[in-house]
Amino acid sequence: MGVMLHVLDQQAAEAIRLTALEILERTGTRVEDARARGLMADHGAWVDGARVRIPSGMVTRALASAPPCARLVGRNGVTLTLGGDHVYFGTGSDCPQFLDPYTGERRPYSAADVAASLRVVDALPQLDFVMSMGLVQDVPPQTYDRHQFLAMVANTRKPMVVTAVDGRGLEDLHRMAACVVGGEAALRRDPLIALYAEPSSPLVHSRDALQKLMYAAEHAIPTVYPPPVPWRGARRPSRLPARWPRGWRSASPASPSPNSSGPARPSSSAGW
Questions:
Q1: For residue 189, is it within any domain?
Q2: Which residues contact 111 (CB under 8 A, 6 or more apart)?
Q3: In a domain? residue 4
Q4: N or C: which end of the chain has fewer CB within 10 A?
């Protein structure tokens, strides 16, 4: 399906882009990981403690080096091309509560509930990709992401977007995905998974988020790194032209910071 929604004209979009670049260069962003700060400094950023100011040329070069699109390849034979005017539909992730369709009981999501939900999604041709839907709570909290992913690979063959607790969690999910598709080379060639991660708040990038970004860049995992969701109109009225520069500048470090060995990796900034 190809759909393009143009909310702003080219002049307004360019004004937002330039404003975001100015904020990144003059104000900067907080980068809470020493390795990420080092990589950014190596590429021309100005580092002062945890504050990193990113020259506009650095952002422009990183974006220019990124591929125009990425792919997700399901075990069901479906390939999703991420980029251009391609539009796909799928589930979300991390709902804390599950409403049992048979008993009407509302309870914390379990691994079995995630499995049951995804079996339904796998059978629906209207949905192109899957996320976990539920936040598994009947397992140790520091490894819940592994249990969610196990439920995903065991119950659907569609392309997947995953969340991870931290960099180590993403590493485990990546290894699990490689086992499923026949090795890391096969996974790199035909990515089964994309990573969904977020900054902590506008202009603040946590150590966990940055470690996930760096691992994803080093292993060619397509990444969705949207601006933080809660502040978009949650506390006061918000207009699109006013909030988009904040969102763009919050997500921009995903492109220049993680990868020191080559061009930028596929990344996307979602909007809510």
A1: yes
A2: 136, 138, 139, 147, 148, 150, 151
A3: no
A4: N
Domain CATH for 190? 3.20.20.480
**Residue 127 in domain:** yes
- Cα dihedral angle (159, 161, 164, 166), rounded to 10 degrees? 110
Written in H, E and C, the secondary structure of the chain is CECCCCCCCHHHHHHHHHHHHHHHHHCCEEECCHHHHHHHHHCCCEEECCEEECCHHHHHHHHHHCCCCEEEECCCCCEEEECCCECCCECCCCECEEECCCCCCEEECCHHHHHHHHHHHHCCCCCCEECCCECCCCCCHHHHHHHHHHHHHHHCCCCEEECCCCHHHHHHHHHHHHHHHCCHHHHHHCCCEEEECCCCECCEECHHHHHHHHHHHHCCCCEECCCCCCCCCCCCCCCHHHHHHHHHHHHHHHCCCCCCCCCCCCEECCCC
Residue 135: phi and psi, rounded to 5, are -95, 105
Side chain identity at 224, as an amino acid letter? V
Count of structural domains, the chain: 1
Determine, yes or no, domain membership for 5. Answer: no
Burial of 247 (0-12, 13-18, 19+ CB in 10 A): buried
pLDDT digits (tens, 9 = 90+) for 159-184: 999 999 999 999 999 999 999 999 99
- Characterise 132 by phi-psi region: left (phi > 0), alpha (psi -120 to 50), beta (else): alpha
- The one-letter amino acid at 200: S
Containing domain of residue 222, as a range?
Answer: 10-268
pTM of the model: 0.84
Tell me whether residue 104 is exposed, middle or buried, using C-beta atoms within 10 angstroms of its C-beta: 0 to 12, 13 to 18, 19 or more. Answer: exposed
